[in-house]
Give the backbone structure.
Amino acid sequence: EVNLLQSAAELKKPGESLKMSCQASGYRFTDDWIGWVRQMPGKGLEWVAMIYPSDSDARFSPSFQGRLTISADKSTNTAYLQWRSLKASDTAIYYCVRPIYSRGYYFDRWGKGTLVVVSS
Amino acid sequence: DIQMTQSPSSLSASVGDRVTINCRASENIRVYLSWYRQRPGEAPDLLIFDAASLETGVSSRFSGSGSGTDFTLTISRLQDEDFATYYCQQTYTTPITFGQGTRLDMK
C-alpha cells in the first residue's frame, strides 16, 4: 500500500528557516515524481512543486519559484521542501502528493498534510 | 497560467439526490482534467482522472464528462460521506492549476 508520511506541524517566526519531509513507502521511490500542494487557511489548493527522485529534475509553480528548495533522498525514500526565510503568508497546510502521469500529472496519493504556522 | 472556474461555488442537497458540478478551463485542455473530494479536516482524494476515468476504489456513483474547456462531475445517490468540497484540476500544462472549489452541504 502506497503511503506518504509527512513530518509534524511547525510553529515558526518570520525570517526563520524550515525543512519539512515526506517519506514514501509502498512503491519504488525512484519510479515516480513526488510533490507538494499548499492549502492556505480556509482556501483552495495550489500546486507548489515536484521532483523526480531518480535524477532530481524539479518543477516549480512560478508563484513559488525562488523561495523554496525541493530535494529527495533516495537512500531514505524521503522528499523535502525547504524555506530559507519564512513569511506570515507561508502559513498553510502543505500536502505531499504523488503525481502520476497519464494525460498530464494527476495526484493519486496524498499525505495527511503538515501544518505550518508562521507568527511573531 | 490556465484558469479553472467551478460553478456553483456552493450547493445544498439531500441524501439520495443527484448533483452536478461544473468546471471551465480558460483554454482548451482536451481531457487533461481530474476531480478531487476533500472532506472537512482531511486531505483531498482523487475521484476522476483524464476527465472520465474512475480512480480505482472510488464508487461508481461518481462520473466525469467533458472535453476542451467544459467539464462536469456528477454524483448520484448522495451519501453522507459525499458532503465535502470538490476541486477540479487541469493537468494539461504546468503550472498545474485547480478550480476554486465547490462546497456541497447537506440541505
